[in-house]
Amino acid sequence: MTARTQKRLAIGGALALMALLFAYKAAMVSAAFTSQTACVTVDDSAAATPARRAC
């Protein structure tokens, strides 16, 4: 394997890893936003209200 091929392979691997990490981070942020239950009314009791009002 030549040095040029090795360099391209290393850069390609690093870019693929970065793309994978960005996709993972985007999935985690998406899951965090879609799973927020701060605006969902479950009960009228004081125990069911969120600690911080988001709505």
Low-confidence region ranges: none
Q: Specify the number of helices.
A: 1
Task: List the quaternary state of the chains.
Answer: single chain
Number of strands: 0
Strand content: under 5%
Ends: how far apart?
Answer: 59 Å
Mean pLDDT, to the nearest integer, reads 80
Give the proportion of residues in helices: 55-70%
The backbone outline, from C-alpha atoms, is: rod-shaped
Rounded to the nearest angstrom, the radius of gyration is: 22 Å
The run of helices and strands is H
Q: What structural class do you assign from the helix and strand content?
A: mainly alpha
Largest sheet: none
Give your account of this protein's structure.
The chain is mainly alpha-helical and 55 residues long. The chain is rod-shaped, with a radius of gyration of 22 Å. The model has no long low-confidence stretch (mean pLDDT 80).
Q: Strands, helices and their partners?
A:
Elements: H1 3-34
Task: Give a nutshell description of this structure.
The protein contains one helix and no strands. With 55 residues, the protein is mainly α.
Give descriptors for this structure:
about 55 residues; mainly alpha
